[in-house]
Write a structure and sequence with these properties.
Blueprint lengths: L2 H13 L3 H14 L5 H8 L17 H12 L3 H11 L2 H11 L6 H7 L6 H13 L5 H15 L2 H11 L9 H12 L5 H11 L3 H11 L1 H5 L13 E4 L3 H8 L3 E6 L3 E8 L2 E5 L11 H10 L4 E10 L22 H7 L2 E11 L2 E2 L5 H11 L6 E3 L2 E4 L2 H13 L4 E6 L11 E9 L10 E10 L8 E10 L4 E8 L5 H12 L2 E2 L6 E2 L6 E3 L4 E5 L2 E5 L14 E5 L2 E5 L11 H22 L1
Parallel strand pairs: 1-11, 6-8, 14-16
Antiparallel strand pairs: 2-9, 2-10, 3-4, 3-5, 5-6, 6-7, 10-11, 12-13, 12-17, 12-18, 13-14, 15-17, 18-21, 19-20
Helix pairs in contact: 1-2, 1-10, 2-11, 3-13, 4-5, 4-6, 4-9, 5-6, 6-10, 7-9, 8-9, 11-12, 11-13
The protein binds adenosine-5'-triphosphate.
The site of adenosine-5'-triphosphate has 13 residues, from β1 and β2.
Length: 599
């Protein structure tokens, strides 16, 4: 496919404000794409070169270098490029405008390729890969040279999108779910295949790989996909409840209860002596935990294995659990050896997904646990999570108290019946978290995605001081607003907020945001924050749960307060609309029972 065609599609995607349109445009694009380019096209429209977890350098060339390359490609001075950039506030647009002005200069590749029709997607993709991978001495100049060459051969609209890809500013707002809908439409024309595509993606979190298998081998091959060591599996997630009685009801009268550790979830992939650690949002975090890598090599007894667990910070003297925040020290790039000593961690494993040719995701939990026990050589710093099998409320509550006393957040109750498989990528009732109460009307804190921002006043004038937050609606793959948050931020949090937002401001309302409030600026759904409020109330302006409780009213969180960033969560991992709805119902029930007792 010629890149010019992809660029035109990108423009159409950028201009649409409806999700149905996004799907239709994407499906038409995928139909035209050859099977050897489908993976590349999928990565590019998501503004990247490979799946997020790949661990390779992403594009993100600095502005200065891009300006230099544009100036070389358009035969203009860097000053003119800078001025054009200032005028449009978008380097891509600046490149386009300058290319339009200097149309006469034709580069070598374009000259050679004009007969064939111009730059191809594969050529642009491989040039971008080269730019991303170059490192070390002289790499800076090489990167500029390759980019300038590309831009010289590009048409104005192509230049716009090449630059936006390079400066990490593409923002087409195309989420994974939308791509899956479009793939189903393009390759099978039927809704039924959507669930096959989704299951394959849950087992192998690489949409490029899934699309390629679909395009080359068809739907049947996709049905047979198994986990592969090295490609992350999308994590199974828990529903929530706040009492033992309902937990037993949901799990069929008997379940396995386990400590809910307050750490960072890791998915450990080991093949021979090679170990990769993936985070909750499937980022490669191996470099943060060289000590955990060592533990895996020593204590995981299998050649190829995928297990899951929690990494927890512990006190270096007493080995008691420390809170999740302590793990932030591990994010530093330098002196990791010293940090390991200062902030030691332990690992508690809770699941096994694959071992030496066995796809364990289809096995029930008791069988997975048997395999886990067989393949882990347990020691103090690397062992299986503390658990018990329980069949009555009293034992659940006792275990819950024990967990809290040990410094855990609560417990996770897990079904052990004949349907208790590993549900990759799904939040269901097979796992139920039961967390400590936060002494507020709201049962739990929520994780919400920033979709807009408002400028502050007074001391905060000129800077963003309040954000518009949304819950996720997975059925429609959209974000629905639920509150505005302006409290709970320290000065440091606000600096961070402004830095993070500067890269995510959107020119228009992102297609996947459903809102009736107009913020000062729209923000591409990307940042997730944890928020707690006083209660959930009916709201005339927010779109979350609109019409579900009352006609023309949605739900919102009253007196919301920022608690912390959740960099470990993707926007699609935010609290869902349905969860907010359930929390509201639960709150109502609580109020009713208090009123009843008072009477
Ligand atoms: P939260 O914000 O409550 O951590 P979450 O959305 O990250 O939730 P959930 O699936 O809702 O994820 O809750 C389970 C989370 O709890 C896991 O992602 C994991 O990080 C953590 N966890 C701690 N101990 C366990 C355990 N024994 N079994 C499963 N998950 C555990």
């Amino acid at each position: 496919m010629f890149f010019s065609e992809l660029a035109k599609y990108m423009e159409r995607l950028e201009l649409t404000t409806s999700r149905m349109q996004l799907i239709a445009i994407l499906a038409s694009l995928f139909k035209k794409t050859s099977s050897d380019e489908i993976d590349k096209v999928i990565y590019l429209i998501q503004g990247r070169l490979w799946p997020e977890w790949f661990g390779e350098e992403e594009l993100g060339l600095g502005e200065k270098l891009i300006i230099k390359a544009i100036s070389l490609a358009s035969n203009t001075s860097e000053y003119v490029v800078e001025q054009t950039y200032k005028k449009y506030g978008d380097l891509g647009k600046a490149a386009e405008v300058l290319k339009q002005k200097g149309r006469s200069s034709v580069g070598l590749v374009q000259y050679m390729q004009t007969a064939k029709g111009g730059l191809t997607v594969s050529y642009v993709y491989s040039s971008l890969v080269k730019i991303a991978k170059l490192s070390g001495e002289g790499s800076r100049d090489m990167k500029i040279k390759i980019l300038a060459g590309l831009l010289r051969d590009a048409s104005p609209i192509e230049a716009r999108y090449i630059v936006r890809l390079i400066d990490g500013n593409l923002r087409l707002g195309v989420g994974d779910a939308t791509i899956m809908d479009a793939l189903a439409l393009a390759f099978t024309g039927s809704e039924a295949s959507r669930s096959v595509i989704e299951r394959a993606y849950n087992i192998r979190a690489d949409l490029g790989n899934v699309a390629k298998t679909l395009a080359t081998k068809g739907l049947d091959a996709l049905k047979k996909i198994e986990p592969e060591v090295g490609i992350p599996v999308r994590p199974m997630l828990a529903e929530r409840l706040d009492n033992a009685r309902e937990i037993l009801e949901k799990t069929g009268g008997v379940c396995l209860v386990e400590f809910k550790y307050d750490g960072e979830r890791v998915q450990i992939h080991k093949k021979g002596s090679r170990v990769i650690l993936y985070s909750r949002r499937l980022e490669n975090i191996t470099h943060q935990y060289p000590d955990v890598v060592e533990m895996c090599i020593k204590h995981l007894k299998a050649d190829s294995i995928i297990v899951e667990g929690e990494v927890i910070a512990v006190d270096p003297e007493t080995y008691e659990f420390r809170p999740f925040q302590e793990l932030m020290h591990r994010k530093r790039k330098h002196n990791i050896e010293e940090i390991i000593k200062e902030y030691p961690v332990v690992v508690r494993l809770f699941d096994l997904l694959y071992v030496d040719g066995i796809d364990a995701t289809t096995l029930i939990l008791p069988e997975r646990r048997k395999l886990l026990e067989k393949h882990v050589d347990q020691v103090q710093e690397f062992s299986i999570a503390e658990y018990e099998i329980v069949d009555n409320e009293e034992d659940i509550d006792k275990f819950f108290m024990k967990a809290i006393e040990s410094g855990c957040e609560g417990i996770v109750a897990k079904a052990i019946h004949k349907e208790s498989i590993y549900q990759a990528g799904a939040r269901g009732w097979l796992w139920i978290k039961y967390k400590r109460d936060y002494k507020s009307e709201m049962i739990d804190s929520v994780d919400l995605t920033v979709v807009g921002a408002f400028y502050g006043r007074g001391r905060r004038a000129g800077k963003f001081g309040t954000v518009l937050l949304a819950a996720y609606d997975p059925e429609n793959d959209v974000f629905k607003t639920v509150c505005k948050v302006g409290t709970g931020f320290t000065d440091q949090d606000l600096v961070e907020l402004n830095n993070k937002l500067s890269k995510l401001i959107s020119r228009q309302k992102p297609a996947r945001v459903v809102a009736e409030i107009e913020p000062d600026v729209w923000v591409v759904p990307e940042l997730v924050m944890e928020v707690i409020g006083a209660e959930i109330t009916l709201s005339p302006v927010h779109t979350c749960c609109k019409g579900m409780v009352k006609k023309d009213a949605g739900l919102s969180i009253r007196f919301p307060r920022f608690i912390r960033w959740r960099p470990d969560k993707r926007p699609e991992d935010s609290t869902t609309e349905k969860e907010i709805y359930d929390m509201y119902l639960k709150q109502l029930r609580k109020v009713e029972s208090v009123q009843h007792e008072e009477r």
